[in-house]
Prior knowledge:
- Chain B is mostly helical.
- Chain B is built from eight helices and no strands.
- Chain B is elongated and about 70 Å long.
- By secondary structure, chain C is of the alpha/beta class.
- In chain C, helix 4 packs across helix 5.
- The interface between A and C is medium-sized, with 21 and 28 residues.
Amino acid sequence: MSDVLSSYPLLLRGAWVTIQLTLYGSALALVMAFVFGLIATARSAWLRALGRIYVEFFRGTATLVLMYWFFYALPLVGARFAPMFAAVLALGLNVGAYGAEVVRGAVKAVPKAQYEATVALNMRPGQRLRRVLLPQAIALMLPPFGNLLIELMKGSAVVSLISIADLMLRAQQLRQSTGQTTAVFLVILVMYFVIAQVLQLFVRYLERRADIMLGRRPGRSARSPLDTRLGAAK
Amino acid sequence: MIWDWHFAGSILPDLLRGLVVTVEATLLGYAVALGLGLVWAILRRSPSRIVGQVVRWVVEFIRSTPLLVQLFFLFFALPATGLTLSALVTGVLGLGLHYSAYTSEVYRAGIADVPVGQWEAATALNLPRRRVWAGVVLPQAVRKVIPTLANYLIAMFKDSPLLLAITVPEMLHSAYAVGAKSLRFLEPMTIVGVLFVIVSVLSSFLLRRLEFRYGNN
Amino acid sequence: MATTDSAADAVLPEDGAAGTDGIRFDGVVKRFGDNVVLRELDFSVAAGERVTLIGPSGSGKTTILRLLMTLEKVDDGVIWVDGRSLSHMRRGDRLVPADEKYLRRVRSDIGMVFQQFNLFPNMSVLRNVTEAPVHVLGLSKDEAVERARELLELVGLSDKADAHPGALSGGQQQRVAIARALAMRPKILLQDEVTSALDPELVAGVLDVLRDIANETDITMLCVTHEMGFARDVSNRVLMFDQGQIVEEGTPEKIFSEPENQRTQDFLHAVLDQH
């Protein structure tokens, strides 16, 4: 165990890569989620279909398969990606598809009466969305987004399979150099757990802020673990 | 010609054999997840506060750490304790354990939905605890959450490629092997991607029908 | 496009042409599925008039307001507001379905107060009142705040400007909603059962505010209400609705004191018995 603990700089470097992947991946996922989630609420049937295709395709495929495809298959047709880029792309596109469903569901869940009030005040369609519907919808998105963020962080461990030196890969190296398999994996499991708890605290903080903005009593966040894996499945 | 149809055709049987292993591992893992998740959910309702809290954190721990790391842990750590299992069995256990954290939350919500009056009626009838669970609470709780549980079957299917890391010859593993041998990755990887999308989209479709059916009762 | 024929037959006045002020319904039909809510409805409201719509629930009163606010579309017939059709607009010599830009011009004259207030929970009381004046009318922030503070004073809520809507009582929320609608300086104010969602002790405060507005402005008012006392005080004319049609209309004195139609009599008995 002490061998493992004394190699902490190596593990910390790995953890930093994991955190970077999580940040970049979730930034991309967030953009994709809003773009395709809002497209799915559009009036044009073509736009809606486009949103549907993105969601069905990227929800339907596995992150690892996507990552292998970017990393191994696409270079053969001339598109060469740095491993880090392929990883962020795969994670972001995949989680973004779940996020798009969350965005769509949340925008639709804002009471229709709010929309009607924006019409009665003669707001432009863009203003309705930006000033009234989205601020309220974002409060609904936060709990499922929090779950997706954890999923993305966990999913980032697969990048070790395309030789990115994240926490998981560092653990592999350490296992080979020290031979202390059980200890190494226990330590990094705990490190992942800590990262996940910190991310959760961050999302809870945002949820509290949103509750205050909407004038709800703080600390009464409605987390639904049911929505975890598939975003809001319905 | 970048895409070689002839080559694609020739590797398809290999990939389909991989798909069979993928589906096998998913279904077996799912069975483990369904069973173990139920155990967690019932233990969380244990009269002992300590048991409830310990189980809660165990589940939280499993849920917030990566499946891949858990798989490696089982694959390398179990033999160290003298328990040697095949890669496939380890993979099935890993998948099942990981997803039991999710299914337990689903069961928990279902159990919480059973009206308090049902528990009280069971107590009034002086039913033994085992009968309360098996005869009264679970039948009501489980039925309601079947569609949600089914969602996790698809999620597991999509996580099953991770088993390649512990040398289970599932579909992505086969694709990688074919690619490494022939130095052509485009066809095997693309076919695997397409097969994944086909199977998941098909099963989502079936799932929506299932949801519709159970949603009506 | 069921409206095309009747709209084309009608003479289409120029935008804002003189003598066409106010609201006119021409043969308006509205269905929800198989349910016909309005059957060939004709009526008009002159500029500055205060008209109250009464009648049993489900008789189509609220639908009239929602059609005027363009929250619903007519199935047949035409609605005119200040000489502009709500369903069609001119493009060259042709009539084409109204687009959003055109509707925004029409809507700029109309305000609405809803039964459930519909305040924006993501904004303070003050911002609820300033948001649309700033971003729709293009007022400067200072102008909008000044206007909002005057209106909040009018509705008796000066001290609640920074409060959150959720922290107010239903009556207070509805008064904010009235201020919010007035901040847009509408020529027409639609009131959809504005007191129906309120606890009985909060009704009077809201009605007092509306009475003041009726007394001090020349805004055209179209009210759907079950408050017969308020209807009597405020309106010039009362329309009694049943099953999507006007069964009787007249001055409040006539309708409330000597209704001729049997259905009006039955309705008034039923409503007044509750009090």
